Amino acid sequence: MWPRAAPRGVPISSADRTACVFYGSSPAHAAVLGFQRGQDRSKGCPVGEIRIRAATKRFGAVTAVDGVSLDIADGEFLVLLGPSGCGKSTLLRAVAGLTPLDSGGLELDGRDITHVPPRDRDLAMVFQSYALYPHLSVERNIGFPLRARRAGRADIDRKVAEVARTLELAGLLRRRPRELSGGQRQRVALGRALVRDPAAFLLDEPLSNLDAKLRASTRYELVELHRRLRTTFVYVTHDQVEAMTMATRIAILNDGRLEQVGTPTEVYDEPASTFVAGFLGSPPMNLLHARVSSRGRMLFATAPGIDLPLETIGDVGETEVVLGIRPEHLRPHDPRPGLHGVVRLVENLGAEEIAYCEVGPARLAVRGPRPLGLAPGDTVGLAAEPEHLHLFSPAGGRRLVWQDDPAPSRPNEEPEQQGVPA
């Protein structure tokens, strides 16, 4: 029984890596960076490839980042997702060079940058607080990195104009930050990073200061910008909606360790642990203790009020598991219910309803189109398809998947789990 390994980045041969051009932060490089990067991408060279190797950072007795290894491919939009205090911002700051690692290493485009100063890493960071200069106009805020590099006036004007058009700021160049909305200030902060033509953008919860409506529109703008630029984005957030809607891949962290890496579909449909299952989704996956046992050569998951067939042939002794079911995969009013309980609360969300039901000692959420046809106090029978049932180890919380020839698992792995063939 093995935890399912999340897919890794596609390896790049050493010959391809050697053939690529690496860029620093000098004015001469900055002037031709965009053209050269476009040529390199057309040749298949990794331009914004970031490799994190066993990164560890401690603050006193607290290990903020615990042996994280992660490959970020050139041009991908990778989101570091997790709850507050999980180490995602510390890891991003380590990549930027703002927080030195205690052990481990970092590579950018195949070049070791572990001890390279932040100014020489060819990375641009956008902070949660915008960090704009209040006495400078939008135009001068955007152009500040180029002036710091002593770029020519013509180059500065050209690049600022290009970035302003890209971010729809052309009509705001003479304004000061205090005259802008929150969304406009965020775009100026992004423009100041964009004007540098960096190998990768590092974004630390850039939308957290915006209201819900503005966050939705800015998410769309960032995804469109990434699609046009084809540059590497590494984005930190605790908001699963941002992660699911923006990322090409999501890296989920918990207590400084990497729980799972995969596409939004992979981490949602096949969570590698009970932590991932309970973190993603609104409401999150229902998790309850159950037993798996054989009955007539078929396997069943049972608990108080629950008797669900796994439709898998097997002959095992009774095994303790954690059973997981997404709220949207529970069907009320099914003629063959495998779960029986009582409705305690129904929430109306407009197009959908969420019913909270007591099934034995467990409380389960059921989500579906309105109306669900359920009311508080109703006795309800629920059904779920076997392919929508998830089994986890009660000890380590890792996903239980039977494999005849298992591949080695990757992040935050537990010892091999003894569980049930599925």
From TrEMBL:
* Location of the ABC transporter domain: 50-280
Q: Name one GO biological process term.
A: carbohydrate transport
**What's any one GO cellular component for it?**
ATP-binding cassette (ABC) transporter complex, substrate-binding subunit-containing
Q: Which UniProt keywords apply?
A: ATP-binding, Cell membrane, Membrane, Nucleotide-binding, Translocase, Transport
Q: What CDD domains does the record point to?
A: ABC_MalK_N (cd03301)
**Classification via InterPro entries:** AAA+_ATPase, ABC_transporter-like_ATP-bd, ABC_transporter-like_CS, ABC_transpr_MalK-like, ABC_transpr_MalK/UgpC-like, Mo/tungstate-bd_C_term_dom, NA-bd_OB-fold, P-loop_NTPase
**Pfam families in alphabetical order:** ABC_tran, TOBE_2
What name has this protein been given in UniProt? Answer: sn-glycerol-3-phosphate ABC transporter ATP-binding protein UgpC
- Species of provenance: Amycolatopsis alkalitolerans
Q: What is the lineage of its organism?
A: Bacteria, Bacillati, Actinomycetota, Actinomycetes, Pseudonocardiales
